[in-house]
From TrEMBL, chains A, B, C:
Annotated protein name in UniProt: Hydroxyethylthiazole kinase
UniProt pathway annotation: Cofactor biosynthesis; thiamine diphosphate biosynthesis; 4-methyl-5-(2-phosphoethyl)-thiazole from 5-(2-hydroxyethyl)-4-methylthiazole: step 1/1
Any one GO biological process: thiamine diphosphate biosynthetic process
GO MF term set: ATP binding; hydroxyethylthiazole kinase activity; magnesium ion binding
EC nos: 2.7.1.50
Catalytic reaction(s) noted: 5-(2-hydroxyethyl)-4-methylthiazole + ATP = 4-methyl-5-(2-phosphooxyethyl)-thiazole + ADP + H(+)
Organism: Sinanaerobacter chloroacetimidivorans
Length: 274, 274, 274
């Protein structure tokens, strides 16, 4: 049962080492705490190995990366590999600059990721080195739709086989796939793209879920994506009821992460196996 | 009509390259999304040219600058100039240290800014190299009042002529001026100075508005300043009604940016041409 | 009277130079404004001396430190010492990596701190170089309880004598001690550990309070710790009443900091001298 995934996070309070961008770092920390994990942010090359050693998993996010932090990501990633920790990558803006694309490729070469989560454009960049990225949003031409869903699932499974990582593609429809099995998730709300950080937070939560459920990383990723979508729906209901805007939406989204229960998950999940 | 300015932002979703401080960067990102734009933050010297090339405008903010990011600001600024993109400067704390003042002057020398927005103290530093700055707030002796308004407008117009930039001075009374024409705006609420980031957010929004209204940068800046002030008033009404404090005020300010309509703008605008 | 401490902050609006981590920096800025102070963040080695000179106190927080910012902390700290400004240290994660521990020790060697605030694990690291730290939370085995309270107070007083700094240990029970006198504070709510930044914010507020009450740093620290705890209780009441979660809790905590009055302080304070 996927609800066990949530329970294991709350019971284990996994400590997640985060090397992430300075735009949404506070949201990631608060989302991790709300979800039942515990964050520690550390990005200096002289401490990342020690920090990652005392943690249960590693979260690498390449938004606002720079030469200093790329070195730290590589060093932390290799250490976490050695230790067998789950490692999760958010290739923010891969494809938007050659530096980001190269950083993503270097990470993929040198670090074995348990999960890679991005929008379809970022994941295509990961796959091919030829994607295009408009900011941090998926290109319109690259959105996952009911029409191209089967093809995209096949693409995700193939990429998972190639990278040996679980592939998570988020958008209007979310796909969570390993080389054999995929979850299709239809939760969420369009307003999630009108605040910054939903993708970053989700990837951070996956790092916590994977740490608390080491035998079931695919289920852990799927349950987390689904929960985030449900929270996006519940938060939308709250702002509609109160007549509020996008900043309240961000607040309520994290509120809901701290309030989601097994019952809310079971009632709300729109998830199927493909 | 100034309402067209708002409409053009929503319809064009301009992508704004932001090189800004780490204190209010999340607020800037969420404010841009609320306003109808889309943010991308990137400050490494190796990617800023590519990133600014895929964007519609550039926002440079010198709060928490350092030697690494100063180089990035200059490089991005020159590239955006070449491309003819609107470029907006927030000289946070210019005058507070010789490093910030010098960075501001170097930027002015090497980059042609479409708009420069600051408090009166920062703008005086820009003008003369002799201003004084207490933190990020205007000195009491330097506030714009009804008594010195005409003189300050004349100062702003002259500075605009000298810098070839639109000058925006914000405070209890706001001035938006080019070398010929100025808008005087009397919207806003004193509580806006009791949260961090209102200035930074406003400057970011101006970058989006200028990108979506390339033929009318003066109107774009004025409509944005006026909208921010109206949202500051609406947010104040909400916290008064709910008995809340300054953090809720910040949330509701961004909420209002996501909810402002042409009607609310027309009803609320306290704007005159001088 | 401790209420005078709060009054002095509001009346003096002390400008606090903050060199702090990028995770909670926005919370620190907004908390300082809510409390009645004014923040300025600056961490480049070329400007920290000038910035600290125009401020009333200095706040150093070693979360997300790096080689560049360690140099800035030392330089700013020495300058603030020379100027006789109150200087407050938050040794976030001291003990979690040798780099952080060394940075904390170097700061203690070269800078005279007015106040040092941490959880028991961080403070033990400060004391001995032999503490253990799990992320930013105190080890379970190291929590302050009614049983070990007297011993911990004695430890704090001894450490204060050794460091010549006021020692603030926060947790379920808070201790504020100099070498002779200690305040024991039993305000607060467990939910304060489910959001990031309560410790960082508290230390920043102490820097403001110490600046506005230069003759009474012990009382200033105690009144601030107590106020933060009261606000944690009031914010909890609000979210319970509204059925909200942890992100609303963060918002309401800062709201309450902007709304606390002498009356609320007097009614709510659970403080004793030991």
């Amino acid at each position: 049962m996927l609800t066990q995934i949530l329970k294991n996070v709350k019971e284990n309070t996994p400590l997640v080492h985060c090397i992430t961008n300075y735009v949404t770092v506070n949201d990631c920390a608060n989302a991790l705490l709300a979800w039942g994990g515990s964050p520690i942010m550390a990005d200096d090359v002289n401490e990342v190995e020690e920090i990652t050693t005392i943690c249960s998993s590693l979260y690498i996010n390449i938004g606002t990366l720079n030469e200093r932090t790329i070195a730290s990501m590589l060093k932390a990633g290799k250490k976490a590999c050695e230790l067998g920790h789950p490692i999760v990558l958010d290739p923010v803006g891969a494809g938007a600059s050659s530096m980001r694309t190269k950083a993503a490729f270097d990470l993929l070469d040198q670090v074995g990721f348990t999960v890679i989560r991005g929008n379809i454009s970022e994941i295509k960049t990961i796959a091919s080195g030829a994607g295009s990225t408009k900011g941090v949003d998926a290109d319109i031409s690259d959105q996952v739709t009911e029409e191209n869903l089967d093809a995209t699932v096949a693409f995700a499974k193939k990429l998972s086989e190639k990278t040996k990582s679980i592939i998570v593609i988020t958008g209007a429809i979310d796909i969570v796939a390993d080389h054999q099995k995929s979850y299709i998730i239809r939760n969420g709300n369009a307003l999630m793209s009108k605040i910054t950080g939903t993708g970053c937070m989700l990837t951070a939560l996956i790092a916590a879920s994977a740490a608390a459920n080491p035998e079931r990383p695919l289920d852990a990723a799927a349950a987390t994506v689904c929960s985030m979508g449900i929270c996006g729906e519940l938060a939308y209901d709250r702002i509609q009821k109160e007549g509020k805007g996008t900043s309240s939406y961000r607040t309520y989204l994290i509120d809901c992460l701290s309030q989601i229960t097994e019952e809310l998950f079971k009632e709300g999940a729109k998830i199927e196996i493909k």
